[in-house]
Each structure stands twice: as C-alpha cells, then as structure tokens.
C-alpha cells in the first residue's frame, strides 16, 4: 500500500480583497471524503493537526484566516459575509470531487463556528454535515460582549506599536493556547502559536476578529431567520471543563447548549467532552469521531 502523501500546501488570493493571501493545507489529499476546518479566533491551522491525523479517510482542508498564521492580512476589516465567502473560496479552490458529490463536512471551532454555520445556511448545496466544536453561540451574552468602538481602536494601535516587543506578543500566543487546554497543549501546537504571534499582524488580526464578534453573531442570527440549516447531520461538541473564574461562566454555557440543540434542528446530536475550550488539543479523537459520524450513511 502506498504511503500517505505529504500534505499539500498553497497560497490562495482572496477575490475582492487585494493583498489578502490565505495559506491552505490539505492533509490526506487522496482521501475520498472532504472536511473543511474553520479555526477559532486568532488560531493557526496547525491546531487541527491532531484531529487530521486521526482521519486518514478524510481530506482535511485547513487554512489560516487573513492575518493569522501564514496568511496576509485583510486590507480592510472583514465582515461576517466576507468570512463566509472565504470558506466558499477555500472550498472551491481545493475541490476534488470524491464521495458525497463534492459536498463536504464543515467543522468550526469557537468563533469559526459562526462562519461554518453561516456557510451551511447560505450554501446548502456544498455541505453534507456540520460539526460545531465548542462553537460560539450567537445568542449567548458572552458572545454578544465585544471589544468595540474606542477600546477596539486603542487595542489595535497598541497591537501595532513597535514597543510591543516580539517576546510579549509570543507570550500572549503561548498563554492563549496553554490556557485553553486542560491537558497541556502539544509542543507542535505551542510552537505554531508562538511563531504566529511573533508577528504584529497576528495580534492585530486577533483584535480585529474580537471586535467583530458581536456583529458576526448578529449577522448569523439574521441569516438563520431567513435560511434554515440544510437537512444534514449536525454534531455539537461541547467542552465541559473550565478553570478558575471561567467555571461559573462555563456552567451557564452548558445550560445554554440545550437551547442550541433546539435551534440546530432534529438532526443535531450533542456530544459533551471532558476537555477545555481547545477541544481539538485536549480530545482530538472526540472531534474526529464527530466528523466520521456526519459522514456515516446512518447519521
């Protein structure tokens, strides 16, 4: 049997956004089924590697949103519609046919879950399943809270200051990934995030996305009122662990997930996982299993 080929990597121009270049990686490029992964706020594609390694039968399409990891920044602040169209652009650029008639499972983590659900609602013709990994809930108060107006403008200026030392930015990235796991992030994930946050562009992109969270949540709610989810299997993967002051918020979040199940329709299955927010690092097998379930003819 032939050895698995190396992941395919490419840079993709974003139509309508001069200068925005997206790094794309396809793991298991010869596999028959396809899954498209949308990362959480400010996180590079490498954090999906533990999941992709458990899915040898799935072409795993990973990418860095503009400004993140190896991608060039948006020339202007991106809207929710821009982010959803970007998913479609990446999907079309990496299309390989295969089983499912060219349709894919869309996987979204945290803030990326808003965009994954947006693609499922706006492009039902390309989606065969949806996996939301501890995804942002558009109706939850924590999602609606945002960094906007003057605080956002100040944060952007601070992120771009030469005085914000590279070491400080890298420490921010390290804390982001280690603070989001219960088991400790793998060394490769820590290295990828630390390397990404060495660039001021990365920190600026994270601040921009944080400032857009409320607008993105409202845009998804508006879309959901007009466009139902397609009749496809949905898996809602919910992290149950949190530490310190986040514990109380996590308890409220878990209660809210019952409401999300009702919102997402009759084909949704909730999967509670003993993991912190970066589920793909704490429990990659649970995420991989959710993807496999949506691909099953019995789903």
From TrEMBL:
Gene Ontology cellular component annotations, sorted alphabetically: membrane
Database matches in Pfam families: Abhydrolase_6
InterPro entries: AB_hydrolase_1 (IPR000073), AB_hydrolase_fold (IPR029058), AB_hydrolase_sf (IPR050266)
A GO molecular-function descriptor: catalytic activity
Taxonomic superkingdom: Bacteria
Limits of the AB hydrolase-1 domain: 36-290
PANTHER family in alphabetical order: HYDROLASE, PUTATIVE (AFU_ORTHOLOGUE AFUA_2G14860)-RELATED, MONOACYLGLYCEROL LIPASE
Official protein name in the record: Pimeloyl-ACP methyl ester carboxylesterase
Source organism of the structure: Phycicoccus duodecadis
